[in-house]
Inverse folding.
């Protein structure tokens, strides 16, 4: 059944409802139709139109009438990425003791893009910065104005702020648009003067360094010297970032996300902290007691080339640089006649004196100039024409081993230049063997600033000085004088090759470094004979005071005159224990008087006694 209004229509057989509707009468149709009332629809559309009109009006108002206001708000409330500095890696000695640590600090910075556009207001803020932080340099101001391409980046005003400077800033922070304080870290070096020439220091990056490292930020630190510089990429780490919403004064309104920083890699050195401290303090005490101003010392493991100690005296406090050195402090360092910034151990080029004689002895045996038993008499010197070449004393008849032990100059004059029927090596052959033992070129140590030393030859003298090479030049070169120069590290490394049986290692300060080496061109039997002569230096030669040490020691003294006065450089190079060497050490005392005792020998004795005995005493 289907219903239309109140009338029920019956469905005839075979008749569909649509057909029924079409056959309705006019009165029946009127009963099921009604008229649509359009008033509610019109009201609805009117309401929608009014709302749209109001929205359009508001949009026009916001963009035209209040456009400047809201644009300023948008500028003043923006997203900013705050750098989270990565902690720099720690540097440790061979046993894991830290030689440096990170100390929290605060830096004053300026963000050029956040400064107000009004010139007068901008100038007021820059002037206020001068008064608050009192930076010594105006570089921050120049950088803030010139580094447009990095205008959103913070520019360092002053690092390691004092409490007073921080208080001055926070008391005015609400009026210092574009100026802020960032958390940072400053390196604190342990026993700075002792380790400064190994560790070096880090400091804020400079404009010239930014050109080489464009990935660095203007507020970043970078290694400047020593291990800090050489292993910068390991120590640096990766900065993190925190995205925040800030207001016009740079105050954080909302934290939106964070990427944590990745700390730098900790590195372990081959350096023995205790040995380094003992060497430095012993030298300092001895030098002050005997009015000596400067010197150097190096200790190596002859089995691997690992550097156990590297000391340059006087040192400097590298903490001065990590905190931003003041101009008067820096001036005091560079004007100090003792040159504390100069790394004598690897950059000082000195006449090696008699410390070169073991290499000359090895060369003479290899070239069969003599045999180990060849005896030469020293009566205090030799005469060649009208020239006299003196010995430091008359030694009488000596063979090779004793010549090393008593340091007979006459014996080595003969080996180098020839005398009394014995043909000498000559400079070309001496130079070739010295180069085999590492003289005349850098050792390759993983520290910056190493010097080459120098080995002359006849062609060089002719070109440089305009004179031919004389036999006297051979004599001087054979005892480590004349034009020959070497660094303390080179001498120590050459003796290490003798001590270990003929392997010249590349010295290194980073623990775990693959030991790079090459053999010297001298047989093990020859080196054994040279070692026996160096042992006699202690048993019956120029360093007999070392006989009381708890281990057998071998060594070689050396005295090298320099300049035109009576001052000399005093050397002693040693290795111990004699039968199975684990330590080679050289000590240099600069500027001792010609008639003074061997200052390097007693320093060595004190240090070796501590190393092999007292160190392990409770």
């Amino acid at each position: 059944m289907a219903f239309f209004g109140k009338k029920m229509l019956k469905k005839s057989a075979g008749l569909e409802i649509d057909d029924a509707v079409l056959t309705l009468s006019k009165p029946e149709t009127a009963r099921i139709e009604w008229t649509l009332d359009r008033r509610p629809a019109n009201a609805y559309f009117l309401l929608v139109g009014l709302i749209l009109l109001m929205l359009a009006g508001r949009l026009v108002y916001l963009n035209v009438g209040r456009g400047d206001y809201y644009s300023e708000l948008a500028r003043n409330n923006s997203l900013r990425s705050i750098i989270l500095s990565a902690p720099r890696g720690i540097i440790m000695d061979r046993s894991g003791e830290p030689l440096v640590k990170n100390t929290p600090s605060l830096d004053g910075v300026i963000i050029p893009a956040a400064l107000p556009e009004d010139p007068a207001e901008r100038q007021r803020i820059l002037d206020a910065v001068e008064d608050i932080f009192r930076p010594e340099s105006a570089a921050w101001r120049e950088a803030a104005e010139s580094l447009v391409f990095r205008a959103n980046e913070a520019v360092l005003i002053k690092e390691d702020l004092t409490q007073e400077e921080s208080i001055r800033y926070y008391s005015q922070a609400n009026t210092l648009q574009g100026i802020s304080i960032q958390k940072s870290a400053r390196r604190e070096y342990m026993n700075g003067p002792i380790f400064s020439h190994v560790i070096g220091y880090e400091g804020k990056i400079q404009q010239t360094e930014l050109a080489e490292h464009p990935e660095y930020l203007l507020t970043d630190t970078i290694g400047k010297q020593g291990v800090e510089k050489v292993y910068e990429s390991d120590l640096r780490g990766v900065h993190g970032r925190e995205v925040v919403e800030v207001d016009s004064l740079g105050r954080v309104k909302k934290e939106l996300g964070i990427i944590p920083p990745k700390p730098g890699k900790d590195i372990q050195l081959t350096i023995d902290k205790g040995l380094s401290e003992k060497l430095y303090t012993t030298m300092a005490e001895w030098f002050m007691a005997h009015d000596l101003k400067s010197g150097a010392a190096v200790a190596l493991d002859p089995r691997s080339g690992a550097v156990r100690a590297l000391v340059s005296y006087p040192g400097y406090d590298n903490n001065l640089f990590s905190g931003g050195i003041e101009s008067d402090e820096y001036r005091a360092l560079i004007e100090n006649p003792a040159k504390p910034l100069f790394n004598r151990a690897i950059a000082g080029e000195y006449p090696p004196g008699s410390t070169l004689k073991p290499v000359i002895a090895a060369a003479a045996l290899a070239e069969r100039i003599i045999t180990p038993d060849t005896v030469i008499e020293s009566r205090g010197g030799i005469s060649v024409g009208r020239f006299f070449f003196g010995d430091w004393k008359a030694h009488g008849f000596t063979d090779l081993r004793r010549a090393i032990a008593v340091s007979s100059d006459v014996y080595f004059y003969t080996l180098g230049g020839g005398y009394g029927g014995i043909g000498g090596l000559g400079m070309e052959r001496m130079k070739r063997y010295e180069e085999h033992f590492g003289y005349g070129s850098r050792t390759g140590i993983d520290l910056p600033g190493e010097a080459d030393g120098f080995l002359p030859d006849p062609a060089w003298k002719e070109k440089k000085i305009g004179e031919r090479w004389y036999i006297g030049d051979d004599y001087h070169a054979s005892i480590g004088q004349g034009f020959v120069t070497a660094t303390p590290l080179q001498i120590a490394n050459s003796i290490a090759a003798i001590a270990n049986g003929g392997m010249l290692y590349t010295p290194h300060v980073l623990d775990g470094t693959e030991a790079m080496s090459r053999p010297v061109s001298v047989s093990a039997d020859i080196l054994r004979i040279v070692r026996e002569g160096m042992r006699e230096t202690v048993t019956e030669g120029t360093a007999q005071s070392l006989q009381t040490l708890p281990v057998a020691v071998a060594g070689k003294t050396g005295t090298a005159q320099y300049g035109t006065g009576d001052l000399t450089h005093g050397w002693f190079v040693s290795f111990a224990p004699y039968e199975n060497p684990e330590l080679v050490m050289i000590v240099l005392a600069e500027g001792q008087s010609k008639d003074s005792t061997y200052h390097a020998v007693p320093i060595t004795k004190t240090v070796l006694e501590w190393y092999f005995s007292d160190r392990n005493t409770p």
Summary: The two ends are 116 Å apart (CA to CA). DSSP finds 24 helices and 25 strands in the chain. The chain has two domains: 80-268, 273-616.
